[in-house]
């Protein structure tokens, strides 16, 4: 189905505001953890521990945020998230000590529950129902560059204004850019009754078994993505690459993710999301087998295969629940299904770091096993309607 101009504008707006929200929250500690820790006399691990607490809060609040989007539509919820992001970042920049810093990250955690991918996906499901798949893919294509934009922007602001000034800069962007875009350019969702009728009534009730299986799939994928996102260069060096080669191979992660999303938007758009999810889940175990069998010369191939699978899984996180359960009640259900994934992402960098320190590249057997288990779970699921997989 060809996107209308209004839908294309909505996708462009959400892609832009998602880039802002991810860049000013999830990708912030990578640049600011060191100067924050130095000023407060803490370790970087402590700063990341505080950030993990914010991610856990996000997991807990996800179902409530999704329910609000189901009821009121995503426009107002996303706009409010910009204000809460701004408040948390302002408080962070003003923090006199670790206690207030932790409180600031808690406020940002509330904003992440209301303003990251799951909220954007629920917004699109409310607007376009079962036809939201290509729109979901579109915003992930744009926001896939959040780290590419966010890390240099944070580093530049920190170099010019210090870490506190970087927080103030991101807070200002939420007020002057994110808030008006979300509030003024995202369409108002139809009333819940009308949306349910357009979707074909209340739809079949999702089985708890299927929700649990999908939650496991997303939690497994989230663990592996977060673990490798934090430790990829070190893992590659443990596999025998030089530091320079590890950095060069790691730089392929972003392009691989975006390339896979382009493939999903084009060639795979007519394929069931369940089939796409199975392909994506199989990618990481294959990548691990290639690296552990071939060693350092296969580092770039490992990153490309893993990155492609991870890029597709980000899309299926939004499209697969839509295919399995339909659009009615999508927001609340999405919050429940993705809560374990958010929690696993919070713990993954620390736990996997311990494994890497102890076992080096052999730690990848864990993430490969999780990938295979997720693939098996996906073969126990079946999407509604035609082409269910």
From TrEMBL:
The keyword Membrane applies. Keywords: Membrane, Transmembrane, Transmembrane helix. Residues 10-386 form the Major facilitator superfamily (MFS) profile domain. PROSITE patterns: MFS. It comes from the Bacteria. GO terms for molecular function: transmembrane transporter activity. The chain crosses the membrane at residues 45-65, 77-97, 103-128, 135-155, 161-181, 212-232, 238-258, 279-305, 359-381. Pfam families: MFS_1 (PF07690). InterPro entries: MFS, MFS_dom, MFS_trans_sf. This is MFS transporter. It comes from Neoroseomonas soli.
């Amino acid at each position: 189905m060809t996107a209308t101009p209004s839908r294309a504008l909505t996708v462009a707006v959400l892609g832009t505001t998602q880039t802002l929200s991810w860049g000013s929250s999830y990708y912030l500690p990578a640049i600011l953890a060191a100067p924050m820790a130095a000023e407060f006399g803490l370790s970087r691990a402590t700063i990341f521990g505080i950030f993990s607490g914010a991610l856990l809060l996000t997991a807990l609040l996800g179902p409530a945020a999704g329910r609000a989007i189901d009821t009121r539509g995503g426009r107002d919820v996303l706009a409010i998230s910009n204000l809460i992001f701004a408040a948390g970042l302002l408080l962070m920049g003003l923090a006199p000590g670790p206690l207030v810093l932790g409180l600031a990250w808690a406020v940002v955690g509330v904003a992440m529950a209301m303003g990251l991918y799951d909220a954007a996906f629920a917004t699109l499901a409310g607007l376009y129902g079962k036809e939201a798949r290509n729109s979901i893919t579109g915003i992930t294509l744009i926001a896939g560059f959040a780290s590419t934009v966010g890390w240099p922007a944070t580093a530049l602001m920190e170099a010019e204004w210090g870490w506190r000034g970087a927080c103030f800069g991101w807070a200002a962007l939420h007020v002057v850019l994110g808030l008006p875009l979300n509030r003024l350019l995202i369409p108002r969702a139809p009333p819940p009754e009308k949306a349910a009728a357009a979707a074909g009534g209340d739809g079949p009730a999702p089985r708890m078994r299927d929700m649990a299986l999908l939650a496991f799939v997303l939690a497994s994928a989230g663990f592996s993505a977060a673990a490798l996102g934090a430790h990829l260069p070190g893992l590659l060096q443990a596999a025998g690459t030089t530091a320079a080669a590890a950095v060069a191979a790691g730089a392929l992660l972003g392009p691989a993710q975006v390339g896979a999303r382009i493939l999903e938007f084009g060639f795979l758009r007519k394929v069931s999301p369940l089939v796409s999810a199975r392909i994506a889940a199989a990618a990481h175990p294959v990548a691990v087998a290639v690296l552990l069998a071939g060693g350092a010369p296969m580092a770039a191939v490992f990153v490309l295969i893993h990155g492609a699978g991870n890029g597709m899984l980000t899309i299926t996180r939004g499209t697969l629940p839509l295919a399995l359960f339909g659009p009615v009640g999508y927001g609340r259900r999405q919050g429940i299904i993705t809560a374990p994934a958010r929690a696993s992402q919070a713990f993954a960098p620390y736990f996997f770091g311990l494994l890497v320190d102890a076992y080096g590249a052999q730690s990848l057997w864990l993430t490969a096993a999780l990938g295979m288990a997720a693939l098996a779970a996906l073969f126990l699921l079946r999407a509604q309607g035609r082409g269910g997989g």
